[in-house]
Amino acid sequence: MTAVRQLFQYELDALRERVVTMGSMVDKALARAVDALRTLDVNLAREVVKNDLDINRYRWETEDEATRVIATQAPLAGDLRAVISVFSIVTDLERMGDHAVSIARYVIDTAAEPPLKKLVDLPRMAEIGREMLRDSLAAFVQGDVDAANRIITRDDEVDALFEQVSRELLTYMLADPMTIDRATRLIAVGHNLERVGDRVENICERVIYAATGAVETPA
Fold this sequence. Notes:
By secondary structure, this protein is an all-alpha fold. The chain has one domain: Methane Monooxygenase Hydroxylase, Chain G, domain 1 (Up-down Bundle), CATH 1.20.58.220. The protein is about 85% helix and about 0% strand. It has helices at about 5-40, 40-75, 75-110, 120-140, 145-175, 180-210. Helix 1 (about 5-40) runs antiparallel to helix 2 (about 40-75) and helix 4 (about 120-140) runs parallel beside helix 6. The chain is elongated, with a radius of gyration of 19 Å. About 35% of the residues are buried.
């Protein structure tokens, strides 16, 4: 391996490490947001909102670093796809951080209200989404197309849970119009968690693109 190639590989590995670090930050934000939701912990929710600034800053720093690698190393073919994929992945990670913030703000805004129902499916959605996130980052580091395709199929579990949550909350609204506001807000929380699954699917599509050049996932 030439010295130039070694340098590029080192810098690409550093970019991958930054993506994993940012993913860990987002995973932590989601975990804290859902914990705050379960316990109605306003202080924890406020921490999630505050720490989102760090996630946003890390995204821009990572994009700057990826831009520098392209400018100085002029990678081609698969190497270029790998670097370009970083831009898309950190964007999706930053959006997941926004979803965590939306959940945290729900906690802050509704903490004084009585709970509408015991939360079961929403935390389960979060658990699956976080598992998918961690697995997608591992697939990115390893360039594992098979793993990426398997992770994509798990989004169906998240979607099914969201549909179940929405149906259940609709029954609350029909039975008692006084619950409409609280139920609607909980549906919004579910939608944020459903979008986490979609964002992970985007990451997996980028894993496939980086490894194969395919712009769409196989049917």
